[in-house]
Design a protein that fits this description.
One of its GO terms (molecular function) is DNA-directed RNA polymerase activity. It comes from Penicillium brevicompactum. Belongs to the archaeal Rpo11/eukaryotic RPB11/RPC19 RNA polymerase subunit family. It is a single chain. With about 160 residues, the chain is an alpha+beta fold. The chain has three helices and four strands; from the N terminus they run αββαββα. It has a four-stranded antiparallel beta sheet with strand order 1-2-4-3, covered by helices on one side. Strand 1 and strand 2 form a beta hairpin. Helix 2 crosses helix 3.
Length: about 160
Amino acid sequence: MAPPRRILTASEAIARDRAGRRGSAPAPRHERSSLPDDVPDVYEAILLGPGENKIDVEVDTRLPSACIFTFRKEDHTLGNMLRTRLLKTAHVIFAAYRVPHPLTPEFMLRVQTDGEITPRQAVINASEALIKDLGTLSREFTKEYELRKMANAANQQHTE
């Protein structure tokens, strides 16, 4: 009887996959022969590496009450939603984001407040509001989808 398999962490799986490409371990199960060697692996766009932070905060000393947040493994989707939500906040003076390079999954969000709240608190408040809004959107979408499905089923029964 074979011993039970140990579950690998994401970092161990990445290291094992990289070792497999160098030839020191068996080749991965998926076929990669058609891809060039410099193509990044799919998981590199979503998994944090060892010691990598999801969000880094840097205080912007040129402006009062301003910070630059670097979000790793995220893209325009979250950047634009946060920027839009921050601009609707009463105490936020400025909010903008930029993606330093299109092949790097990260964006930088600059936030300046009027001093009543910190930029960090403004981002936290905007994130919580976004989570609430997306929950509402999900519930409303599901409700509408189910209603249309029932209406289509009723129409099909009525026409038969």
